[in-house]
Amino acid sequence: MNVLSFGGGVNSTAMLAGILERNDAQLIPALILFADTGGEKPETYAHLELMSAWVTKHLGLSAGITVVREERFTLEQECLSAKTLPSIVTAMRSCSDKFKIRPQNRFMSKWKPALDAWDAGHKVTKLVGFDAGEPWRAKDYSDHKYTVRFPLIEWGWGRDECIAAIERAAIPVPPKSSCFFCPEMREQEIVELERDHPDLLDRALAIERNAKAGKLVRIAGLARTHSWEQVINFHRDQVLLDGTTLLAPRAERTPCVCFDGE
Ligand code: SF4
Q1: For residue 240, is pLDDT > 60?
Q2: Which in 38, 70, 147, 190 has the greatest CB count within 10 A?
Q3: 3-state class of 248 per DSSP?
């Protein structure tokens, strides 16, 4: 029995398109989970809705994509009430752990088909959408309950192949999914957030200001060495967007479950 973790981005969409295209019955998921932090952009929620109908139509999942979440509060609400930023800002992953992984684990701990499989001594197979361009993420996460498979890597699909598969399936290629206040966003993405979703940028800046008035230490803001406010002001001051950047390029990113193709 397969359970697929849908992140709302290119990789997990390509994984679904590939399962249908390759007609691989062994990979058809019995359950697809999307963990909602409450902070995705509207395009991602629209894509989730579209794909939920798509999996019902093409893969026969009558429930569509099942949305799970931390029921008590969203990540944005937690940041505001604790006067802090998402923990990924300090390279910790507790934001994705609390708002992505744990809600899925909680759901699985009550999902009868999985309980029956475990009672019978079987494992459930988790399908994870890491692609062939990021093989370092595909560690052996299998344990006594789960076998973990990475279909995109098995198929040798990198980002280009993923996008091509989505287009062959006549699915709109989704934008990158992440919280709109994610500290892992690139400088250009912050500028685009102001252009496309000024309301969401205002909410991200409110999180940042609130944290700076609280217990933020050694971190300037959502961009770590700088605040997003500085990033936005820097780009407003540019007469031309000529590619000049404020932030130094990141030496490395902190991979987390939220990255779903970019
Ligand atoms: S998208 Fe970013 S802020 Fe949101 S849970 Fe993932 S790492 Fe944390």
Answers
A1: no
A2: 190
A3: coil
pLDDT (0 to 100) of residue 252: 55
Q: Which of 62-76, 77-91, 241-255 has the highest mean pLDDT?
A: 62-76
Distance CA 68, CA 108 (A): 10
The distance between the two most distant Cα atoms of the chain, rounded to a whole number of Å, is 66
Taking the centre of ligand 1 as the mean of its atom positions, its distance from the CA of residue 240, in whole angstroms, is 31
Instruction: Find out whether the beta carbon of 95 lies less than 6 Å from any atom of ligand 1.
Output: yes
Match 């429930």 to its residue by tokens.
Answer: 63
For residue 98, give the nearest of 88, 83, 111 by alpha carbon: 88
Instruction: Check residue 221 and give its pLDDT.
Output: 95
Q: pTM of the predicted model, to two decimals? A: 0.93
Cβ burial, residue 199 (10 Å; 0-12/13-18/19+) = exposed
Q: Is the pLDDT of residue 242 over 80?
A: no
| Predicted pLDDT of residue 175 | 93
CA pair distance 52, 67, nearest whole angstrom: 10
Q: Is the CB of 180 under 6 A from ligand 1?
A: no
Query: Given ligand 1 and candidates 95, 177, 219, 228, which is best to mutate, with the most ligand atoms within 8 Å of its CB?
Result: 95
SS3 content of the chain, % helix, strand, coil (to 5): 45, 10, 45
Token pair recorded at residue 132: 């062939």
Is the pLDDT score of 168 beyond 90? yes
From ligand 1's centre to the CA of 253, what distance in Å? 12
